[in-house]
Amino acid sequence: MTQPTLRTESLFKLTWPIFLQYATFSCVWLVDFWFFSHLSDAIAATVGQLLPVVWLGTGVIPVFAGTGVAVASQYLGARQFEKVVPTYMMNLCLTTAMGLGFGAALWCLAPDIGRWMGLDAALAGIARTYLTAMSAYFIFLGVLVAYNAVLSSRGMTNWLMYSSFVVAALNLALASLFVLGFHWGVRGVVSASVISTATATLLSIVLVHRGLGVRFHWRGAFRQMIGVARPMLRIGISNAVEPMSYSVQQIILSTMIIALGVHSMAANAYAGRAQMFQITFSFSLALGAQILMGHWTGARRFADVDRLYWKIVRRATLVAFLYAGTVCLFSNRVLGFFTADASIRQLGGTLLLIAVFYEPARAVNIISGFALKTVGDARFPLVVGTTFIWGILPVVYCINRIWNLTLVGFWLCFAADEIIRACINLWRWRTGKWKGMGIVAPGNPAPQANREPGATPA
Hints:
With 458 residues, the protein is mainly α. 81% of the residues lie in helices and 0% in strands.
């Protein structure tokens, strides 16, 4: 008996487990932030401004691992099964190396990063503690995202959802114990996240090798991995450069926001966390569609890919508008979850009003970025993304020097960036140039196989 290459072609069945998985992770971040705010607004504000540093790893490594989903899905769709397991193995090697490298760099630079960003001595001490503890997180993250990519490429998103529930419950229990019971402070919150991520890694390894029956092999593996490296790097580097540029941009912007004071830092952090569930929905739709688009592009089903893109764009923008509007209407209660300071809540409420207008555009950019890269048009979103990411910095800097921007002014600039970029991405998709950019050559017949290599017979 053979295993199917894809569990289902239903977008709903693929996406709702991804949404619940990422919504659970968003809850973990919110719970962690609640513990930070429980310790003090200064700690929460400091961690909030350090998040772009952490995003260099948590953004780049998982997005790069999405290369494994896109490439493996196209090979599966084209029934070139002999290339699938080498793709998984190369993905694991690359993301593990990235996780180890980033964790080591964070450990070495932790004493200086807060100072470089302009934090005073007390806040820089908080930054050092947080970043040093977080360095261990990336050791497990690099392995976790590669194994999750294997499950995603086979459509087994429901298994990832169940794993996330276990991890979220464990994180909450450990954070409560470490912070409220042992009084470990910042280290307690981070330690809970590290242990939870290590547990998730172990669960994913078991699900891939025992549940899905995928077997890695060593004989001839290096030659086969090199054979799939070119399309992986072509898509993967483009995937990674944009979030890396975004994270560096956010670090620079954070240094500007730090200069505005702790109140602005806290309002920025809390308002940003309030938008997490909307962003989660867009990412979930993009990741679910990525699986289908990869398979359908490999099978040359371009009409289906195009219909799917416009469907998820409509859904993502509608949900973004409704969610952002609801959060804005109840902003005082939402921000009250984090802080009792009325001035922080008032400033945060203004930021959430701006978000109503630019969150739908951000949803379009998330969907379009994943979609274009999945179908092989990786260079365009890379060029557009990096151009706007770096182009907005001198604009913000000049406007700030002329008009002395408040935090509201910064968010208005972010809104303009997202809206213009969304229009460009929609235009690019409509041109249809992506139809000739897949990794499977149209003239090459897809080799047939009785079953997928690396899969245990039923």
